[in-house]
Amino acid sequence: MSAEHDRWIGRGEALGRLGVKAQTLYAYVSRGRIAARPDPDDPRRSLYAARDIARLSGEAVAGDEAPQPAARSAAGRGEAELYSSVSVVVGDRLLYRGLDAVQLAETATLEDAARVLWGARAANPFAVLRPRVGATPGGSPRARLYAALARRAEEEPDLATGDAVALRVECARVLDEAVDAVAGPGPRLFLHQRLARTWKIPERDGHLVRRALVLAADPGYDPAILATRAAAAGGACPAAAALAGLAVVAASGPVAEMARAAGWIVAVRRQAFDAARRAQETGDLAGFGDPDWPRGDPRSAALLAAADLPPDLARAVRDGEAAAARPPGFALALAIVARRLELPREGAADLLMIGRLAGLLAHALDQIVDGSPIRARLRYVGPEPGAN
C-alpha cells in the first residue's frame, strides 16, 4: 500500500478515484491539497500524488492519523469548498483558463487577459463601451478606484438572470471606469497606456506596465478570491463582489510586503550601509521567497527579466537573493518595477490592485454564471447562552 501511495498518476485516474470534475482537481492542486508535477514524458501534462488522492478519497494512508469523523471534515475545519474555472497553479505554472500566464503576458494587454479570464475570447466586451463623462471623487488613486466600484455597484443593472454576455460587458465597463478613475480622463487608449500616460512613462517602457497588470490579474487562489465569490454567491453584482475582494487585497500580505520591500530598495540604492547584512540581521529583508512557490514565482522571474534594471536595482535583487537564499517574490518584483519606472509611492500597489480587479471580476462572473453553492460552516465557540 505504501508503494502504491508513493506513485504519481495521470489526470484521468485522479479524476476517477476522486469522482470530481477537472476544475475541482485543479482547485485542490491550487490550494496545496494535492501535489502535482510535470509529466517527464510530456511536460504539457501533469501528474498527481497518489497519496494525496487517496487521502482526499477517504482511504487509509500509511503514516497518517486515523480518518477524522464527518463533523471534522472540510467544513468542520473551517474550510470553504469553491469550484472555479478561472485559474489554477499546476507545478511551477500559473494558468489562466488553461493558458500560461507568463507566456500570455509576453504580448497580451490587460483587456486580452480579462477576456481570457472571463471566457470571452470569442467576442470583445470592450468594443461596445463608451467613455464616462465626469470625474470620480477621491484623493488617492485607491480612493478613486473604490469610489468607481461603489458607484458602478449602485448603478449596475439587474443581471440576476446570469446572462453571461451581458455580465461580461458589465465587467468590461467596471474595469474601464476603474482605470479611468485612477488615470483620469484622456484618449481612449489601451488600459495600460492610460496608466502609463498618467504616470508619464516613456513609450518604450509601457510594456512593463502591461506585463505587470497581466501577471497580477490572478494568483490561483487567495482570501480575496474567497471574499469575491462569497459576495457574488450572496447576490452581489460584479462590481460589489470585486470591491469586497479588493478590500482584502489592500489588507493582504503582498501589499504590506511591497511597502517593506520598497524600504529595502531605497537602502540598497543609497548604499549607506551593507543593506543585505543589516536587513538579514534585523529581519527586515522582505520580498524574497514565497511558500506558495517553493521553487520561485515564475511571474517574478518574467517581470524582472523584462525590466532591463539599472545597476543599483539589479544589485538590490542580487544582494537580497544572496542574503535570503530565496528567489524574489512577485511583491518585490512589482516594487522593483515601480522604482524602475519612477512611479508614485503607492504605484506598485496600484498596479497590483488594478490587475487583480480583472481577475476578481472573473471570479464574480464565474460564480454568478456557473458557481455552485459555497459549502462552509460557522461553528459557534463563544460563551454558553446565559453565561454572562
TrEMBL record:
Gene3D superfamilies recorded: Citrate Synthase, domain 1
Taxonomic superkingdom: Bacteria
Pfam families for this protein: Citrate_synt (PF00285)
SUPFAM superfamilies: Citrate synthase, Putative DNA-binding domain
Annotated InterPro entries: Citrate_synth-like_lrg_a-sub, Citrate_synthase, Citrate_synthase_sf, DNA-bd_dom_put_sf
GO molecular function: acyltransferase activity, acyl groups converted into alkyl on transfer
Protein name (database record): Citrate synthase
Source organism per UniProt: Brevundimonas viscosa
